[in-house]
Design goal:
Blueprint (H helix, E strand, L loop, with lengths): L1 E5 L7 H5 L2 H15 L3 E8 L3 E4 L5 E6 L11 H10 L4 E6 L4 H12 L4 E4 L13 H17 L3 E4 L5 H6 L6 E3 L24 E5 L4 H4 L1 H12 L5 E5 L6 H10 L6 E4 L7 H5 L4 E4 L8 H8 L3 E5 L5 H7 L2 E4 L3 H13 L4 H15 L2 H17 L1
Parallel strand pairs: 1-2, 1-5, 2-4, 5-6, 6-7, 7-8, 9-10, 9-12, 10-11, 12-13, 13-14
Antiparallel strand pairs: 3-4
Helix pairs in contact: 2-15, 4-5, 8-13, 11-14, 12-14
Length: about 375
């Protein structure tokens, strides 16, 4: 089976892949599919026309397109490639959500009768529409729902996320493919230890997007916690424009001395960053999976995650943390519970690590994904 992934921009360079969870997930799934015997290529756009082979075995075709990212026009070379090289025996997975270029490419594929799957990475949770609501709802009705309804399937990161599609009137079949880890993410268990006496340290790693990641909720919950408990909070990641407002919130709640904001560091493996902290926090209002949370499990940390995240059922199943509603009171209660269970942190963390090693390798996930792709053809 020939599989093509499409994403607006892409590189297999490790720093580029590690700079965003969706890129890391696409790279991991593509690599795993190759290991399972599939022919895989990533189609993308950039400043020049190039073709390259990755060490993992998949190809990258980049087509020249100098337009800005939020545009409907796709590269002429990409259109020609679709017309000349793709057919009804190929499957294209469109990676992204609320992207005009995906709408344009989906129309091109539909006209050529080429099946495609939409892989939005985020769920169509009501909270995704609550920020910039008028624009998102207009785009939804004019473009996004058409892309989804004409798809062969929608690839979600958790079975529960298909409910959001049904609530929006999208009856397209959903297939669930979670995120996973690569062998290079695994370090010896001895590298991950806990301190029983230091000040408890809380950690978030990811985009500093306050609404999506629930960072405003986390800061408020931490401020309430800090009035009665000694603890520290660090937020690290690329600033998407919200860091100044988050720093102001910390100052207004008089927790600046206990709160640190750090730029991302793509030179250090994520589990090796996370091991320096005690509790990993991901209180998102909406979240596809939470790849950084999975990496926290690899680092044998205890976790607090939002119930909407695709990683939540795995945190519950392994017993490595608490799952909470994305609300200040629930986040505070979850943090208090974890602090009270400090003597169990090492045992809990190791349970999470062992669970991930057994259940969530990219090769295991890709093998299941490949079966689901093949079943789409059989239908």
């Amino acid at each position: 089976m020939q599989l093509y992934f499409y994403t607006r921009s892409f590189s297999a360079d490790s720093k580029y892949v590690n700079s965003e969870g969706t890129r890391k997930a696409l790279h991991g799934l593509a690599s795993g599919l190759v290991e399972c015997g599939a022919n895989v290529a990533v189609l993308c756009e950039g400043e020049s026309e190039t073709r390259s082979d990755t060490p993992e075995g998949y190809q990258i075709y980049q087509f020249k397109n100098l337009q800005k990212q939020k545009k409907f026009k796709i590269a002429d070379g990409l259109k020609q490639f679709v017309q000349q090289h793709l057919n009804s025996n190929t499957l294209v997975i469109l990676s992204g959500i609320f992207q005009p270029n995906i709408y344009t490419l989906a129309n091109c594929l539909r006209k050529q009768k080429i099946p495609y799957v939409v892989m939005p990475h985020d769920p169509y949770n009501p909270d995704i529409f609550s920020k910039n609501a008028p624009l998102k709802w207009i785009y939804w009705h004019l473009f996004e729902q058409k892309v989804l309804k004409n798809a062969t399937a929608v690839q979600v990161l958790d079975d529960r996320h298909s409910i959001f599609l049904q609530d929006l009137g999208v009856k397209t079949p959903a297939i669930a493919v979670p995120n996973g880890f690569s062998a290079r993410d695994v370090y010896p268990e001895a590298d991950f230890a806990y301190s029983d006496h230091s000040v408890p340290s809380l950690f978030f790693l990811g985009r500093m997007d306050a609404h999506n990641k629930g960072l405003d909720l986390l800061l408020e919950a931490f401020a309430q916690l800090a009035s009665t408990h000694d603890a520290k909070l660090t937020l690290q990641g690329a600033d998407k424009g919200d860091r100044p407002s988050l720093e102001l919130q910390a100052a207004q709640r008089s927790i600046s001395d206990r709160t640190a904001f750090l730029a991302p560091d793509y030179n250090i493996a994520t589990p090796l960053i996370i091991r320096n902290y005690d509790i990993f926090c991901l209180p998102s209002r909406f979240e596809g999976f939470g790849l950084s949370a999975l990496e926290a499990m690899l680092a044998a940390r205890v976790l607090l995650v939002s119930e909407v995240a695709g990683i939540a059922p795995h945190v519950q199943a392994s017993g490595c943390g608490v799952v909470v509603k994305p609300e200040v009171s629930a986040i505070r209660a979850g943090l208090l519970e974890l602090l009270e269970r400090r003597s169990q942190w090492q045992e809990m963390g190791l349970r999470g690590r062992h669970y991930v090693l057994k259940q969530l390798s990219w090769n295991t996930i890709a093998a299941d994904a490949l079966k689901q792709y093949q079943q789409l053809f059989e239908r």
